[in-house]
Amino acid sequence: MKKRIAAMVLSAAMAATLAACGGSGTAATTAAASAETAAPAEAAESKAEESAAAADAVDTSNAAYTISIGHINAENDSWHLAALDFKEQVEKNSNGQIKVEVYPNSQLGSEIDMIQSILQQGGCDITYTGESMQTYSPDLGMIGMPYLIQSDEHMTAVLEGEVGKKLEGMMEEAGMKVLGYFTRGPRYITSNKEIKSTADCQNLLIRTPQSPMTVAAFEALGAKPTPMALSEVFTSLQSGTIEAQENPFAMIQNQSFYEVQKYLVKTAHLRAWVYIAMGKAQFDALPAELQQVVLDAGKHAQACEHEIFLENEKKFEKQLQEEGMTFIDVDQQEFADKMIAGVLPILTESQKQLYDEIEAANPSK
């Protein structure tokens, strides 16, 4: 039964990828047929296998290069669907000279593990990362600054402008070639404790990423932030080791946090992004014509993911409510005042300068 369910998920995932990202007609037809009919489980499994085979139709048996993509999200997440799109584009446009392997669900370790693997050329070549790169370039931690990015338009202005070029330069200096980026929805707190104001965050055991800025922001609320890998969060919530976490709608839905969390608190405390980041050494090892194939595929995957993301954002909000989560509206300015005040004192001079540049890029100001 688990195998059949997995096959149905894979079939739906492939359908979404090929429909949203312009995949091959044969594969799209097969996937659409699976999605539109209530076929038996055996048929769904067969369709999934056919769709996967269609997406991998290019012969890579004699590939001169192999690129491994690792990420922390599930197979039904837009990040994974974009990875499949990247695979299809690279293998097709390299005429099978490059084989792409995709490892979802933290199969290659945590985000930090994969970054280290890439930089040490240890088996992972591409991952999705942003503020976690601050270990190698401290100013990249500004990606995780609470309430700095005010809107999707502001984020685009940053990423496509002079500040974006500066940030990509920092990534490259740290050993990562940026192939594109995925913008994320606002992050919200989920909890088994009702939270209506910052006072309710006192002593809240909340999982956060391994980001000094995020930790400082939640400490300013009186919470007890506990950094841990995403793969550990569900069981930690289930066992009561932690009582809260914070993520966008997509992560809350796709990681099934609604099964172990009662409340969704609409703080919208962070709007951020992740880069499609390839090890610069691995990128530089490719011939120039294959480098261009990889760069083009990165931009294609970026557009693919964004289309799926936009479709999913409202859908996931509705689904989480249908799953029984209680949404709580809060005074976001109250949260902003405390979180920003908690982080500003720990910023370096160069981080403060970058903070001002990002703030100034807001088109609404």
From TrEMBL:
The residues forming the signal peptide are 1-27
Which GO cellular component terms, listed alphabetically, does the Swiss-Prot or TrEMBL entry include?
A: outer membrane-bounded periplasmic space
Q: Which UniProt keywords apply?
A: Receptor, Signal, Transport
A single GO BP term for this record reads: transmembrane transport
State the InterPro entries in the record: DctP_fam (IPR018389), TRAP_DctP (IPR004682), TRAP_DctP_sf (IPR038404)
Q: Give compartment(s).
A: Cell envelope
Pfam families recorded for this chain? DctP (PF03480)
* Membrane-crossing residue ranges in chain numbering: none
Stated family? Belongs to the bacterial solute-binding protein 7 family.
Protein name (record): Tripartite ATP-independent transporter DctP family solute receptor
Identify the species of origin: Moryella indoligenes
